[in-house]
Write a structure and sequence with these properties.
- Helix content is about 20%, strand content about 20%.
- It contains seven helices and 17 strands.
- The chain has helices at about 75-80, 85-95, 155-160, 185-195, 215-220, 260-265, 295-305, and strands spanning about 70-75, 100, 105, 110, 120, 125, 135-140, 170, 175-185, 200-210, 225, 230, 235, 245-250, 270-280, 280, 290-295.
- The strands form four sheets. Strands 7, 8, 9, 10, 13, 14, 15, 16 and 17 form a nine-stranded mixed beta sheet that branches.
């Protein structure tokens, strides 16, 4: 009587076992892991030899920007950041020690938007706020945007009950890509996690339309030159050596549809794509479509990665 083959184990991205070095070697599963802004003058840019700050003489926002949007007066922004009271903040702004998006701003009443980078004496500052960090196991057929003109369900709708804070997703996942997604209102951390220089690791479990050939396995693992440049792969392996349509891939680059494009380059279609790890965060004990707040330890680990 034949023994039943063991059930296939889902790809978890665990760090306990290293991936097989090649599809035919070993039997371990892949479980790794001075711009001075004055009033309405033509733009004049001057370069200083000792500083990188540019100089312009035109307000960076339209005069008609209303207080009903998400913008905030610069002096209020500095006050909320704990730099100084508003009157003192006005003096600091006039002295030229405050920059917005690397441009020195001296205009009274200047408004900053949530996406602007404000610096005081060369250091990034931001209003003290209640930072929220939410981990979502993104389900299929949801959009990673704040809203969708076609009326499709968004990830923000899924986590709407979690907080009253204005949060946003860190990076993007395709509509039909599932798995780990971080949402937060911490713009500084989100920017760092998304920036290529921090090389944040991501692990995906891809299901292909046909078995991955050994030659293509090696080519992808060694990196592939696509139409928008070289795509480096940290690691590649199989969750189950008996089923080579199931592939685990670890990358840190964040190019659009990068995992799908890597396999499409060799004639494979990705039938399913699930992100099992992002920046050390996993979906353990988090079923599809569910979300939770990050723990203090997880937040501390993210801060360590971005400092």
């Amino acid at each position: 009587m034949k023994e039943k083959a063991p059930a296939k184990k889902p790809y978890t991205g665990s760090k306990r076992n290293k991936p097989t070095s090649s599809p035919d070697k070993g039997k371990k599963n892949f479980n790794k892991k001075s711009a001075v802004v004055e009033k309405r003058k033509p733009v004049v840019v001057q370069k200083k030899s000792s500083k990188k700050t540019n100089t312009v003489s035109k307000p960076l926002v339209d005069k008609g920007l209303k207080s009903t949007d998400d913008s905030m007066r610069l002096n209020r922004f500095l006050a909320h950041a704990g730099i100084a009271a508003r009157r003192k903040a006005d003096l600091l702004i006039a002295s030229g020690v405050v920059t917005v998006n690397n441009l020195v701003v001296k205009e009274m009443g200047y408004r900053v938007k949530p996406t602007d980078v404000v610096k005081f004496k060369g250091k990034i500052v931001k209003p003290k706020t209640n930072f929220v960090y939410i981990l979502l196991n993104k389900p299929k057929d949801t959009i990673t945007t704040a809203s969708d003109e076609k009326g499709r369900k968004t990830v923000l709708e899924i986590v709407a009950s979690a907080t009253d804070e204005r949060i946003f997703p860190v990076g993007r996942l395709d509509r039909n890509t599932t798995g780990v997604l971080l949402l937060t209102n911490d713009g500084d951390m989100a920017q760092k996690l998304s920036h290529p220089s921090f090389e944040v690791d991501k692990i995906y479990h891809a299901t292909l339309d046909k078995p991955l050939l050994a030659e293509h396995f090696e080519q992808i693992r060694n990196g592939v030159t696509l139409e928008d440049g070289f795509a480096k792969v940290n690691d590649l392996g199989y969750p189950d050596l008996k089923d080579r349509t199931q592939v685990g891939i670890e990358i840190h680059i964040g190019k659009n549809r990068i995992v799908r494009r890597l396999f499409e380059h060799f004639g494979y279609q990705v039938v399913k794509l699930d992100r099992v790890m992002y920046a050390g965060l996993t979906k353990k004990d988090l079923t599809r479509g569910r979300h939770r707040m990050l723990t203090e330890l997880e937040i501390a680990q993210l801060r360590k990665k971005t400092n």
